[in-house]
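Exercise 7. Given the components listed, write out the predicted structure of the assembled complex. Treat all entries as one system.
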Amino acid sequence: MATSLTVNGETHRVDLPDDVPLLWVLRDEIGLTGTKFGCGVAACGACTVHIDGEAVRSCQVSLGDVWGQVTTIEGTGTPEALSILQQAWVEHQVAQCGYCQSGQIMQAAALLAETPAPSDAEIDDAMQGNLCRCGTYPRIRAAIHGAAAKLQEV
Amino acid sequence: MARIGKIVRRTFLIGSAAIVGGVAFGAYYVSRPAPNPLKPGPGEAALNPFVLIDQQGVTLFAPRAEMGQGVMTTWAALIAEELDVIPDQVRVLHGPAAAAYYNSALMGDALPGKGYDTSNFQHSLGEALGVIGKVLSLQVTGGSTSMKDGFVRMREAGASARETLKQAAANRLGVARDTLRTEAGAVIAPDGSRIPYPELAADAAKLDPVETPLRDPSEWRYLGRTLPRLDMVAKSTGTAEFGVDVRLPGMKFASVRMNPNLGGGMKGFDDSAARAMPGVEQVVDLGTGVAVIASNTWLAMQAVEAIAVEWEAAPYPPETDAIFAQIARAFDDSPNSTMRDDGDVTTLPEGATVIEAEYSAPYLAHATMEPMNGTALYTGDRVEFWGGNQAPTIIQSKIAETAGLETEAVEVHTTYLGGGFGRRAEFDFGVIATRVAMALPGVPVQTTWSREEDMRHDFYRPGALARMRGAVKDGKAVMIDGRLATQSPSRQAMQRVTGMPGAGPDKVLVEGFFNQPYAVPNYRISGHIAELAVPVGFWRSVGNSHNGFFHETFVDEMAHAAGRDPLEFRLELMRAEHAPSAGCLEAVREMSGWTGKTPEGVGRGVAFTYSFGTSVAQVIEVVDEDGTIRIARAWIACDIGLALDPETVKAQMFGGMVYGLSAAAHGKITFAGGAVEQGNFPDYDALRMHNTPQVEVRVLETNRHMGGAGEPGTPPAMPALGNALFDLTGKRVRSMPFAEHFNLLV
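Answer.
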């Protein structure tokens, strides 16, 4: 049976069992590969997307349970039109291997939406579910502070 | 991109005939350049294997795996510096697997010396030995060698291409070449008019490459300063293509389950439940495992888990304790890798105090963020493979072997790597992807491993044991006798790649152990290879990763036994032996405001490791917060000789340290019933945002030769943390992970 879902403002109809996680619907059916598979058990955050603005682990949300509009990394900015947060990521040269960064950015975007000027402790709380094996955390922190300052000016 | 893809494909169809010879490789023992793998079409010129110019512009090839270390950007900068193009205005591609892209530095590092005392003669010899890498077609990214390897060759490639383009312009204008100059991708005529490189490409391709001296470093515009990474925008927008992101028309998705008793066979399986599951297209019998091809990855993972398999036992002792008992038995045999034996360690200097200690280090998984995967298309007479890998020529030949084809019938597309750390220097994921794809000829199949499959089928950092005996007298170390027992990743890898076991002393086994720049008069370091079939491989910093811990924890114990400050104790032994290394210790002393004393509730530890030609000192500070210990701050000083991109070097230093601290705090792979017990991040965790220390890095450049950046940050992190925990608690722990012994913040 076909399920309808809205991703980055576009409606998609997918014919898959209800229990297929959103992550795999995005990656293998819709072809949005910016959202990454890292662990499958919500322990690394690489698959983080927004549903109605809330950061969720897409490996844990079944297709049948998607309750709102989905936004992925592709929906937040493009190489030609970076979001302010993505600009901060580039400015602070955050990424190393880069695999976890889509999830990091989606998690950070949700944090900034809720807490426009987060403290280090608030960054720790919000970001500790997102693993980075390259250890880019100091630059992620700097980029979040940088983007927060930029967003205040806007 | 499509155009380049075509060029690359043609290269493989036609073979490797070069239209234009490569650049001269100077004094290399094997002086003939390898065939140029870039076969240009009409209107294109491949001036050497690293520069291709067509009507669209200039393409540089950086045939080293971009796994986060920034190699693509700095490699391109080496060419751009001499070629006179602006790095972010040219295309930079990885390119095909090719003999021309061999790594000259990797084999040079196999010289028997300690490294830090390398003479210019030995250094040249190392470069000459590098040709072995060429003869073996070792296109490998590893051993922190990329910049050492590319530093001269890539500038020569750029310089020769530039002068050849100038010669083409000189011929056209009827002027002498030395009246022309170059700038931002164009030749500038004496009257100031510009001829863009693409307009000269066809003419230049007909000329013999022009040799020219390299520019003086004082003229550099790109090297030695920080450049924006070329991959940063793609990696910040989800548009960078990793192996798992490859999407091809008609592609199917697969997942795999190999015998968790590593190296064991398969008695049989029942796939009736799996076949009935939604989306399942095919179950593939891999002999020692099974795979399911389905319409999406998750359905494939569910189905492959639903297959009931009867596995055969592992060819090694099934429990961790028995494995370590076997490692310990290697101490009973005579050592095979005694790479340092100074003075006499058998006679105790009169009046000296003896210190003895035993240490152990666990098996470790690489746990790259991107689980192992590969995408393959088998058409009966050819295989195309897509995926992140550190050794494309090895993958290519192993895939060819798997498919019963000639090497030339296999084309390897190397994507970005979602972490490498040595894991992707193996070829198993390529062979498995090929075998799965061979079940559906003509259909591209992407095989993605679950995290559990990845963690339980690694080539692990081997478990290791050390028995240390030392002596101090009058506040100084007068004797160190270190013995190591562990498996040899080099020998196993050699066996896997060539089918022949390695032989002779194993320098990698004892690296970070025998070659530390301490002036200790009686100093012996021996390695005992433990024969075990547990799969082991190259884990970021390899032998240094355990040896750094053993050596530097023991040095700390000696300092305390001598009643000395551990930093001053090291510094005194190092100053006469190797000034750049001593400089790193002095730097972290100053950066951290080291006094040898810490307030109540704060502990500090120092450690030092010389590895991959780079000296690294680290100070780690731990803080007791109501009974929970937080790794609060870290200071790193490295001496890399020449930092081609200082911010990238800093990123590698703190990233390497976090990798080491993660292992020291949490990392442990154990075996039960023959299988690895840990399967996912909840039981194999790493540092995260909230428990990563604030870090300050200083990059020094006084070492005589350029060192590596990707790995040297890792080894000193583990002993520095252990030494800090000792300073805080008075408890000396000689095994890792420390979270088993201390209440670390997790």
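Discussion: The domain at 2-223 of chain B is CATH 3.30.365.10 (Aldehyde Oxidoreductase; domain 4). Confidence is low (pLDDT under 50) at residues 1-33 of chain B.
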